[in-house]
Amino acid sequence: MELMEYEKKHTEAVKGSLAECTVLLKKDGKFPLEAAGKIAAFGSGVRLTVKGGTGSGEVNSHYSVNIEEGLEQAGFEITTKAWLDAYDAKRAEAKTDFIKRMKAEAKANHQNVMVYAMGKSMPEPNYQIPLEGQGDVAIYVLSRISGEGNDRPVEEGEIKLSATEKRDILALNEKYDKFMLVLNVGGVVDLSDVTEVKNILVLSQLGVDTGTALVDILLGRQNPSGKLATTWAAWDQYAPMDDFEDINDTRYQEGIYVGYRYFDSFHKKALFPFGYGLSYTEFAHKLSGVSADGEKITVRAQVTNTGQRAGKQVVQVYVSAPSVKLDKAYQDLCGFAKTKELASGESQEVAITFALSDFASYDEASASYILEAGNYIVRMGVSSQDTAPVALLRLQEDVTTLVAKNVLGDPGFTDLRAEAGQTENIPADICVITLSADDFTTEQVDYQPKYEILPEVEALSIDEAA
Description:
This protein is an alpha/beta fold. It contains 8 helices and 18 strands. Strand 4 (137-143), helix 5 (163-175) and strand 5 (178-184) form a beta-alpha-beta unit. The chain is globular.
């Protein structure tokens, strides 16, 4: 189908930025490839490439390039057509069984099957297909789809890898000199069983040109430069939530300790931390200076490409606040800055500015947001688990940044809380900036609820309501 002119322009505008949305988790120097050639391609995502999520995460498009098509358009010879055909057959069988199961479960729960199955995805099936393919390059494309309507289940073939995926990925990693695990996913999967894999790329789900984007990365036409916006870890390392997946009521007891805040504050080791991401090249960064304009703090850093290829780097700034009365995470992301594409040996200075008042905490007793007096440690690095102190902000007194109003009731549970009083050695020559209440402004919100509290009614069961 012929594309409209605006579609062509939009597609071309996006293509050059797709690699910036991918994250290189591991590398051994065998990629990028020098040229297209024979390639052994395995995994559900080779043909069934996911370009977006379900529901509102998906859009209709005039075309899309899956990974098989992208490889062939670039001149690769895929030597695993027999494997892909056999997988298609196994997948079709599994899908038939999955639909039957959804219909049976919906009937047992007295629900419409379309409503019951909304957002549910079929887990990856297990199978026995020989890993036969020619060439010294192989990829395994692991796909997952998700969207609105349901939580992803903590089971094999979904958040966890299936037994087949683990077996085949490890076998390919051992067999092929040049092997890359490609993650065509919209959310985290537990990679704890395959951490020995030499090259891992989070391709994500990049829309209609997902297949083209992978080829550009494999051949070095583009350099992956994204950073993780979530923490990737073994499932049992995340904050405990006993009623996760409860369709009626989930108590989000992790409180402020969501994502990296939990791992950093409770000293949990992630497989790949928040903000993490490698490149085909290497970078070095150093502090240029820290300055203050009232409560606005600016951190400047010099970034140098020390490797052999052109690429981009992201510098991140975090702040660790004192925890006296109010609960505070070990650190919070304040801001980040990405360099332009730097040639080998090229440098650039980047600046990250943030307002300290943005990191005030809510005090339920006074119904206000407060910055507690004490030392605020400014950190700089390239992931949440790779930061170092670069400045000390000394706040001389408590500061109220916003006066609000309590409008919510008792949730019926207590939030998770970390041990207070974390200490560390701060360099003696660190930049110290003193702040006072005069550097801040206090806002006041007079919030009037726009709702009416109705009397409680006795809930009816599904059968009674019908």
